C-alpha cells in the first residue's frame, strides 16, 4: 500500500528520511513515495548530484511504468 501521508510531507516536518528509505521504497516499486523522499533530501542538500541523478532516474522509471503523479 502507498502511504498517503507521503504526499503531504515537507522538508521542515519533524520526520527523518534517508536515501536508504528511498531505495527500499524504489525496490518495492513505490516510485511516488521514493521520489518524494529524494526530493525532501534534495531540499536539504540542493547541490547533491547523486540525489539529482536518483530523482531523474526515478522519473524515467515512473514514466516507463505509467505513473502519472511524478
Provide structural commentary.
By secondary structure, the chain is an all-alpha fold. Helix content is 56%, strand content 0%. The protein is built from 3 helices and no strands. The chain has helices at 19-27, 31-44, 49-64. Helix 1 packs antiparallel against helix 2 (31-44). The chain is globular and about 30 Å long. It starts with 18 loop residues before the first helix and ends in a 6-residue tail after the last helix. The mean pLDDT is 81.
Write the topology of this structure.
Elements: H1 19-27, H2 31-44, H3 49-64
Structural class determined from secondary elements = mainly alpha
Output the number of helix runs.
Answer: 3
Q: Averaged pLDDT, please?
A: 81
Q: H/E series, N to C?
A: HHH
What share of residues are in beta strands? Answer: under 5%
- C-alpha Rg, in Å? 11 Å
Overall body shape: globular
Report the helical percentage.
55-70%
Largest sheet: none
Give the number of DSSP strands: 0
Model regions low in confidence, pLDDT < 50 over at least 5 residues? none
Distance between the termini: 17 Å
Which terms summarize this structure?
56% helix; mainly alpha; 70 residues
Summarize this entry quickly:
The protein has helices spanning 19-27, 31-44, 49-64. The chain is mainly alpha-helical.
Amino acid at each position: 500500500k502507498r502511504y498517503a501521508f507521503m504526499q503531504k510531507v515537507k522538508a521542515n516536518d519533524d520526520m527523518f528520511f534517508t536515501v536508504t528509505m528511498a531505495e527500499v521504497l524504489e525496490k518495492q516499486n513505490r516510485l511516488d513515495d521514493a521520489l518524494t523522499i529524494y526530493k525532501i533530501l534534495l531540499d536539504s542538500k540542493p547541490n547533491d548530484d547523486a540525489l539529482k541523478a536518483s530523482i531523474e532516474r526515478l522519473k524515467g522509471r515512473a514514466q516507463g511504468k505509467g505513473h502519472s503523479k511524478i
